[in-house]
Design a protein that fits this description.
- It is a single chain.
- It is built from two helices and four strands.
- The chain is globular.
- A four-stranded antiparallel β-sheet has the order 1-2-3-4, covered by helices on one side.
- It starts with a helix and ends with a strand.
- By secondary structure, it is of the alpha+beta class.
Length: 111
């Protein structure tokens, strides 16, 4: 009985250590949400509205351009429909103080 009790205790310690290690490894792998994430979601939503029959298959954040009165987040999305694959550059100009969108532009590309 004593051996069984010791065996169970050792098993629980190893299980507990495994759970602890898994929890900390998972927490260490979480990355912070980038500041452009909400604009990337907006770009994908507006692109899907503009190209409802195409599937977005890739996404690239190009960068932010900051001006005196507005900022512009720049993205390139790669789409595929029944006939072709193509890229779309999406620029979202917004007021950085209010996050109000001023203009969204789309430019298709074959590259």
């Amino acid at each position: 009985m004593k051996k069984l009790l010791i065996s169970l205790m050792i098993t629980f310690v190893f299980i507990d250590m495994g759970i602890w290690q898994f929890h900390h490894e998972a927490a260490a792998q979480q990355k912070p949400i980038p500041p452009y994430a909400k604009w990337g979601t907006f770009a994908m939503k507006k692109t899907q509205e503009r190209y409802p029959h195409a599937k977005i298959i890739d996404y690239l954040h190009i960068g932010r351009v900051t001006g005196p009165r507005s900022s512009t987040e720049k993205f390139k999305l790669w789409l595929k429909d029944d006939k072709k694959e193509f890229g779309v550059f999406v620029d979202i100009e917004f007021n950085p103080a209010t996050s109000q969108v001023i203009r969204t532009t789309f430019k298709e590309t074959t590259r």
